[in-house]
Amino acid sequence: QVQLVQSGTEVKKPGASVKVSCKASGYTFTGYYMHWVRQAPGQGLEWMGWVNPNNSGTNYAQTFQGWVTMTRDTSISTAYMELSRLKSDDTAVYYCARSSGMAAAGNFDYWGQGTLVTVSS
Amino acid sequence: SYVLTQPPSVSVAPGQTASITCGGNNIGSKSVHWYQQKPGQAPVLVVYDDSDRPSGIPERFSGSNSGNTATLTISRVEAGDEADYYCQVWDSSRDHVVFGGGTELTVL
């Protein structure tokens, strides 16, 4: 069965960086785009971008361009999202989500469990 | 950029029908997907491609999409349907995903 298992809770100071991992299993990792979505406390879903595990291509939401980096390691079927220069309003739950079809477009049929990142001095 | 507009909240009595709208410019030309999110949980896909249901989702969940409005309809609402619901589309002009702001469904 398809599973996306994310890394654990992180607490960071303002200005630091955080790298969240998303380990995939139960399907061919390189066959499906991986997206990242975040949700601040009490707020809605905010799309951050995607990574193509097949060729490492990326596309980021304009809000995050210049300070997010999405990568992957095909040898261990894991996607990563790194956010730099953290601010307090980056405190959120970060999700990885698989695109259902073999394209970036489409719906998200599987989600990770979420990783809480808290930014506090 | 493309914008999706949802009502912040919808209330419905048990057993009745809930309709949650998602407005966007010519959204009828796009495929709309809907997610249910309960507190402390990751979102779950309940309707995709306007009106299809993933396996395991009750037939009570249905969707439609035309013109400038897509609608998620939940028939015979149950207490367990209380959750936040989000619509989502693909903005092909930017290769970006767009989410609506979300609708809190309250079962009275």
| Alpha carbon gap, first and last residue of chain B | 36 Å
What structural class do helix, strand and pairing data of chain A support?
A: mainly beta
Counted beta strands of chain A: 11
Low-confidence stretches of chain B: none
Q: What is the string of SSEs of chain A from the N terminus onward? A: EEEEEEEEEEE
- Give the N-terminus to C-terminus distance of chain A in angstroms: 40 Å
Biggest interface: chains and residue counts?
Answer: A-B, 23 and 25 residues
Report the sheet-strand fraction of chain A.
Answer: over 45%
Question: Secondary-structure map with pairings?
Answer:
The complex is a heterodimer of chains A (121) and B (108).
Chain A: E1 3-6, E2 10-12, E3 18-25, E4 34-39, E5 46-51, E6 58-60, E7 68-73, E8 78-83, E9 92-99, E10 108-111, E11 115-119
Parallel strand pairs in A: 2-11
Antiparallel strand pairs in A: 1-3, 3-8, 4-5, 4-9, 5-6, 7-8, 9-10, 9-11
Chain B: E1 9-12, E2 18-23, E3 33-37, E4 44-47, E5 61-66, E6 69-74, E7 83-91, E8 96-99, E9 103-107
Parallel strand pairs in B: 1-9
Antiparallel strand pairs in B: 2-6, 3-4, 3-7, 5-6, 7-8, 7-9
Walk me through the structure.
- Chain A is an all-beta fold and about 120 residues long.
- Helices cover about 0% and strands about 50% of the residues of chain A.
- In chain A, a hairpin with a 6-residue loop joins β4 and β5.
- In chain A, about 40% of the residues are buried.
- With about 110 residues, chain B is mostly beta strands.
- Chain B has strands at about 10, 20-25, 35, 45, 60-65, 70-75, 85-90, 95-100, 105.
- In chain B, about 40% of the residues are buried.
- The model of chain B has no long low-confidence stretch (mean pLDDT about 95).
- The chains are: A mainly beta (about 120), B mainly beta (about 110).
- The interface of A and B includes residues 37, 44, 46, 95 and 108 of A.
